[in-house]
Amino acid sequence: MYPKVKSALARAWRDLETVQFGVTPAHAVVLGPVDTATGAFMERLDGTRSMELLRAEAAAMGLPEGRVDGLVRALAAAGLLDDATAGGARAQAVRARPGAMERLGPDLGSLSLVHREPGGDLRGVAARRAIRVRVRGSGRVGAVIAAVLAAAGVGRVEVLDGGRVEPADVAPGGLAPGSVGRPRAEAGRALVREAAPGRGPRAGEDGGPEPGVALVVVAPRDGLESWAPDPQAAVDWVATGTPHLYAGVLEGTGLVGPLVLPGCTACAGCMERDRVARDPAWPRMLVQWRSAHRRRAAAACDLGVATAVAGLAAAHALSFLDGELPASAGARWEAALPALHWQAAPVRPHPDCPCGAAVRAGPAVAAVAGSDRSGGP
After folding, report:
1. Of 75, 141, 254, 287, whose Cβ has the fewest other Cβ atoms within 10 Å?
2. Domain boundaries of the chain, sorted by first residue
3. Quick one: pLDDT at residue 294?
4. How far is 169 from 219, CA to CA, in rounded Å?
C-alpha cells in the first residue's frame, strides 16, 4: 500500500487540533483531534512511500509507534485516503496510459469524491472506458454532449443524425466551422475522436462481446422533440429497458430531462398522456407545431443556453453512468431566458401508460418524482 491523501479537497486547520478537508459542504470532512506533528507528517502521504517507509520516517520524527497506522485508518474511514496501487487490473491499465491520465486528471479528482474507497477514481474511469452511449442529435446541444462524454473517458460514444452540418450547428466545444457541409453523423464521429483522451476500445478488444447501449441521450436540433418527445420514437428503448435522457432548447428555454429508466420512471408516453389529461387541445396543437417545425428556418436556440444545457445534460449522464441517480430521474429541469432560473418540473408515471412504471415502481417512483429538489440540478 502507498497511502495518499486525496488532493481534490483543499485542506485547512479549523483550530490547533482540527483539520477540515474540503471547502464546499457537499464533500467537506472534519478530522480531529490531530496534533501539529501528525498534521505535518500528513504531507508525506503523497503516494510515493510504502507503509514500511512511512513508519520509519514517523519514528525518525519522534511520532509514537502505531501513529501512522492509526492515521491511515482514520483517513480511510473518512473517505480521504487514496492508494497509488489500488483499483485492480483495470485501474492499472489506466495508469499505463499516462497521456490519458493527464487529460483526465480533473475527472479523476471529481470521481475520488464520489467513490470514496482507495482507487475508486481509477476504477470509475476504467468503467467509463467500457461504456457505450448513443447521442441522437448533433446540433448545438447534441454535439457538445457527445464531445464532453468522450472527453470524460466514455469509451464508445456514437452520434446519430441526418443531413449535413449547417452554419447554425457550429458551437464552441461542438462542431467546428470546418465541418459545415459534411454529413452530420460523420462530423459527429470526428468530433468524438478528437475529444477523446486516447483511442477508445474496439469491439471485442477486452475479450468480451460488444457492450450494449448503456444510455441514449436524445438531443434533437429542434427542441420541440425534447419538450414533447414522440412516444413512438422511444418504443424500442422502453421495450429493451434502455435508459434515455432528453435534452434540448425550445424557444429560449433550456431543458434537461427527464432521465427515463424504463419501468421505473415516467416515459414519453406517460408525459403525453398527462398533457392530454390536463389540456384536451394538446394533440391538436402538437400536430400543428410539428408541421410548422418543417417550415422553420431557424430555432430560437441561444448559444449560451445551449451550452449550459449540454453541460448539465452531460453531467447528469455521467452521474448516471457512474452508478448514481441524478436529479433528472423523474423530473425535467427547465431554465428560460432572460432570468435563467433552473426549476424542476416533476414527471410522474401515468397509470394508463403501457410502460408499466406506475404499476411496478409504485410509491417509490412517486416519491422520486415529487420530491423537493431544491438542491439544484
Report:
1. 287
2. 1-85, 130-370
3. 60
4. 13
**CB distance 137 to 219 below 8 Å:** yes
**Domain 1-85 class?**
alpha beta
Give one DSSP letter per residue of 89-154, joined into a string: HHHHHHHT-HHHHHHTHHHHHHHHHHS-STTHHHHHHHHHHT-EEEEE--STTHHHHHHHHHHTT-
Cα angle 299, 301, 305 (rounded to 5 degrees) comes to: 165
Q: Give the chain's length.
A: 377
> What class, spelled out in words, does domain 130-370 have in CATH?
alpha beta
Looking at residue 202, its pLDDT comes to: 66
Asked if residue 52 lies in contact with residue 32, where contact means CB atoms within 8 angstroms, the answer is no
pLDDT at 267 over 60: yes
- Residue carrying C-alpha cell 483531534: 33
Residue 371: its pLDDT value, please?
41
What is the H or E stretch that residue 331 is in? Answer: strand 331-336
∠ CA 48-38-82, nearest 5°, is 40
- Range of lowest pLDDT (180-189, 270-279, 288-297, 302-311): 288-297
Q: What's the per-residue H, E or C state across 138-165?
A: CCCCHHHHHHHHHHCCCCEEEEECCCEC
Q: Which of 267, 252, 255 is nearest to 142 (CA)?
A: 255
pLDDT confidence band for 118 (50 / 70 / 90) = confident
CA angle 217, 218, 220 (to 5 degrees): 140
Is the model's pLDDT at 298 over the cut of 70?
no
Torsion angle of C-alpha atoms 282, 283, 286, 287, degrees rounded to 10: -150
Q: For residue 20, give the amino acid letter.
A: Q
Q: Are 17 and 54 in contact (CB under 8 A)?
A: no
The one-letter code for the residue type at 157 is V
